[in-house]
């Protein structure tokens, strides 16, 4: 008997599944509030070199002091990273005159002065992560995603070995601890380390929530469950814009986005372990208890009392001798041992890299489209919800493969289009950017659902761990690509575009999973 048949007997999508689906949506809200926090945590307000006080400046206004001390850009704004080695008093008579021949510009010698009208403080203003130190500011996001990358490997293996629920609870509690330590950071090094560890912890939440929920629902409601869980990521996106707007000091902003993880951990008490995982690992009695609870809550009181008859038939069996294989150990190497699974692993890894690379490339460029950054974050969050609704229809009509491929390709084309559109066309650029963000989120929504259906139960978390590892490499590289604008201003966007289109084409090589039973063993895949 297949586990899918058991689900039909106890109710494949009743009150029990609805309850745990909504509880598991709470941790999803926490994720974007940390994954996209870099936009506000490391925001760089307008700044200029600090000018030491001199007696000659006594009768000058601040504007005049800046005029004679700091070079101007062609648009009239003061440069952020340079100052005159000597005051240029002749510019008071005519600011369009060139500086004196014996005067040269130099890097800021006395620190910087920041505009605090938008932010009380950020890590950029706290530790002067501007100009020559700009790379360290961008690297903060990279450190976080390196942590997420490592966490994907760790929690992918541990959740297949020790269970989904226990590892999800561990992940949430570690997120609270390391998130609060990040808020208390007294140096850049401490912040970099604690943000990396926060990424490791949150990776478990990202990795486990969707498979744990989907392993409890029947085929007909898998897509709905996946989309519902994904919608709460968008809710977190919207809430991040609101929280960041209200909390302008980076220490308290970290506290505000970390505290909800504690609520999620408390609510997890009502979520049972995956019965699929328990059966696949030979823990039939525990699985039976959870299935009875599910049946009672769903009003299926005639569910069989004896577990041995039906549940043992759900365990994976050896293809050669037919004996049950409870507790057989699998690892990431198992993803590449057999030909079909190897092809799935390589192609899905490429797709995940492209999805994450383009998504975070767009999400971390809030000021690149002419809108206020809080408004951009809010709009980007809002547009994701209709994108998910449309994908709910498409993945059930067109299929997972076509939806995945075209969503990613169109994301790349929208990014490429904005390279061509001139900067003064702010409204048009904003519309194209919002469309691209919608396609990007559609690709991310589909890839979570699609990947969880591609791998068998015995390797599902290993598969999700591997693909999440590759995705986080894309997330880690995405913020660093912005530094390429020093080579060519449009090079970051061209890079995001090319990667998204190429990885979208790879998605056509994956098998279709629409209306297909979730595979239980490697033999089912092969």
Can you count the beta strands? Answer: 4
**Distance between the first and last residues' Cα:** 20 Å
Q: Give the topology string: H per helix, E per strand.
A: HHHEHEEEHHHHHHHHHHHHHHHHH
What is the fourth-level CATH superfamily of the largest domain?
Answer: MFS general substrate transporter like domains
Q: Would you give the CATH topology of the largest domain?
A: Growth Hormone, Chain: A
Oligomer: single chain
Mean pLDDT over the residues: 85
SS summary, helix count: 21
CATH architecture of the largest domain: Up-down Bundle
Given helix and strand content, the structural type is mainly alpha
Report strand %: under 5%
- Residue windows where pLDDT falls under 50 for at least 5 positions: 317-324
Main sheet characteristics: 2 strands, antiparallel
Spatial ordering of strands, largest sheet: 1-4
Protein name: Solute carrier family 22 member 7
Keywords: Cell membrane, Ion transport, Membrane, Transmembrane, Transmembrane helix, Transport
GO biological process, one term: monoatomic ion transport
Catalytic activity: prostaglandin E2(out) = prostaglandin E2(in); GMP(in) = GMP(out); orotate(out) + L-glutamate(in) = orotate(in) + L-glutamate(out); glutarate(in) = glutarate(out)
């Amino acid at each position: 008997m297949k586990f899918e048949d058991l689900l039909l007997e106890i109710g494949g999508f009743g009150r029990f599944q609805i309850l745990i689906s909504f509880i598991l949506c709470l941790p999803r809200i926490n994720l974007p509030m940390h994954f996209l926090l870099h936009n506000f945590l490391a925001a760089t307000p307008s700044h200029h070199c600090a000018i030491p006080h001199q007696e000659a400046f006594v009768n000058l206004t601040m504007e005049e002091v800046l005029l004679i001390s700091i070079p101007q850009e062609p648009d009239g704004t003061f440069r952020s990273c340079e100052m005159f080695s000597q005051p240029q008093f002749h510019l008071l008579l005519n600011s369009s005159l060139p500086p004196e021949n014996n005067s040269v510009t130099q890097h800021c010698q006395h620190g910087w002065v920041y505009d605090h009208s938008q932010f009380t403080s950020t890590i950029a203003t706290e530790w002067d992560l501007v100009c020559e130190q700009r790379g360290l500011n961008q690297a903060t996001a990279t450190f976080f995603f390196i942590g997420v990358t490592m966490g994907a490997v760790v929690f992918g293996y541990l959740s297949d070995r020790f269970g989904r629920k226990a590892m999800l609870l561990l992940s949430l509690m570690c997120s609270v601890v390391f998130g609060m330590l990040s808020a208390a950071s007294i140096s850049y090094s401490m912040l970099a380390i604690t943000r990396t560890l926060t990424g490791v912890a949150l990776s478990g939440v990202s990795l486990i929530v969707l498979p744990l929920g989907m392993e409890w629902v029947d085929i007909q409601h898998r897509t709905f469950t996946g989309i519902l869980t994904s919608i709460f990521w968008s809710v977190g996106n919207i809430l991040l814009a609101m929280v960041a707007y209200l909390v302008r000091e980076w220490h308290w902003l970290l506290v505000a986005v970390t505290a909800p993880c504690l609520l999620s951990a408390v609510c997890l008490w009502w979520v049972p372990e995956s019965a699929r995982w328990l059966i696949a690992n030979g823990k039939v009695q525990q699985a039976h208890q959870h299935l009875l609870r599910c049946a009672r809550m769903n009003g299926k009181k005639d569910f069989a009392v004896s577990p041995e008859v039906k549940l043992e038939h759900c365990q994976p069996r050896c293809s050669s001798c037919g004996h049950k294989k409870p507790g057989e150990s699998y690892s990431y190497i198992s993803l590449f041992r057999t030909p079909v699974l190897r092809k799935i692993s390589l192609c899905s890894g490429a797709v995940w890299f492209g999805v994450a690379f383009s998504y975070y490339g767009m999400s971390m460029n809030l000021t690149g489209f002419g809108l206020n950054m809080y408004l951009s974050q809010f709009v980007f969050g809002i547009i994701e919800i209709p994108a998910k609704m449309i994908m709910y229809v498409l993945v059930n009509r067109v299929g997972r493969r076509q939806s995945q491929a075209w969503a990613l390709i169109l994301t790349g084309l929208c990014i490429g289009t904005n390279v061509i559109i001139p900067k003064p066309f702010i409204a048009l650029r904003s519309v194209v950017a919002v469309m691209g963000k919608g396609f990007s989120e559609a690709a991310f929504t589909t890839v979570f659902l699609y990947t969880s259906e591609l791998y068998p139960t015995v390797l599902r978390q290993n598969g999700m761990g591997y693909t999440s590892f590759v995705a986080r490499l894309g997330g880690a590289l995405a913020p660093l690509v912005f530094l390429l604008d020093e080579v060519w201003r449009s090079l970051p966007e061209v890079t995001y575009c090319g990667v998204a289109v190429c990885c979208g084409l790879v998605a056509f090589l994956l098998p279709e999973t629409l209306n297909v039973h979730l595979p239980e063993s490697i033999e089912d895949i092969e």
